[in-house]
Amino acid sequence: MCCLLVGFTGVSYAGVKHVTAQPGEKAKGLQQALNLTDEQTTKIAAIYKESAEKCGRIQKAEHGNSDKMAKAVGPLRAATIKKIEGVLTQNQAAKFDVLVKHTKKSGVDDWG
To answer: Which of 5-14, 27-36, 100-109 has the highest mean pLDDT?
Structure first.
């Protein structure tokens, strides 16, 4: 579950191919999908980096127990999404919401 959070999966949406493992790459994917400024992209990369670090700590603390990790990662993912939305314009946030919902419906928890 944690790996999904930091983007070890790929998603194709609206012609944008998204396959990343690093926070900076993930932010670049959003930059293309949402037409972000460089400043927004930098802020979002920092949010993804912080989230990935917390996710790594959760993974270590739960010693691979997927049920416990899922419970711990859910709130982290929600907080990450909320932080990202705070960086976006209203129009970008609406598009981001569609991306998040689309990936969740497809069984992939990505972008958050």
So the answer is: 27-36
Give just the sign of the alpha carbon dihedral 19, 20, 26, 31. negative
d(CA 29, CA 98): 15
Three-class SS of the chain: CHHHHCCCCEEEECCEEEECCCHHHHHHHHHHHHCCCHHHHHHHHHHHHHHHHHHHHHHHHHCCCHHHHHHHHHHHHHHHHHHHHHHCCHHHHHHHHHHHHHHHHCCCCCCC
* Model confidence at 41: pLDDT above 60: yes
Q: Where are the domains of the chain?
A: 22-104
Which residue type, as a one-letter code, is found at position 2? Answer: C
Residue 84, strand partner residues = none
Asked whether 14 and 33 are in contact (CB, 8 A), the reply is yes
pLDDT above 90 (res 90): yes
